[in-house]
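Many introductory courses stop at the sequence. We go one step further.
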Amino acid sequence: MSPRHRYIAIEGPIGAGKTTLARRLAERLDAEAVLEQPGENPFLARFYQDMARYALPTQLFFLFQRVRQLEPLAQADLFGRPVVADFLIDKDPLFARATLSADELVLYQKIYDAVRPQSPTPDLVIYLQARPATLVERVRKRAAGYERGVSEDYLALLAESYARFFHHYSDAPLLIVNSENLNFVARDADFNLLVQRLLGMKSPREFFSVG
């Protein structure tokens, strides 16, 4: 793995392909994969059925889960092995702002500020984009039980929120990837092309698309 890519974070809305890419990239680069575990969240399925009621516990569960996963990265021996994560904790408040009431958001922000680990900034962030219709199709296809209640309106809201967040993001080098026509699972050529592009980045902000 390139010495300047010891910690890579992959982001994007639900269905963009974060976890699939993180797994493949970690395997290719002989890195440790740090992956979100949405199936562990006992509130998630209920959140998709009643967002107003379950948004706060769902959000806090994910926050504490991510904090726990990132704690080892704050240790001095982080760079004993490269890391590829399928989340960026800096974007965690994005979901909070999209789903919480004003009072809940104030409470969430206080908790976020108190527990956020002092983990290092990624050497590279990969932001996967896709149209809401594509996200819906992918979510339906994988048919995870807790995702059956995900609506197209919610996915559209997330896609817009991610676009705004990364429009202003400048904390780490950023590769924006249009994943509409990229198939990281079935087409090795697509995956290899993306790896080649990220390893060859020359500027702090680049865009990648195929087809």
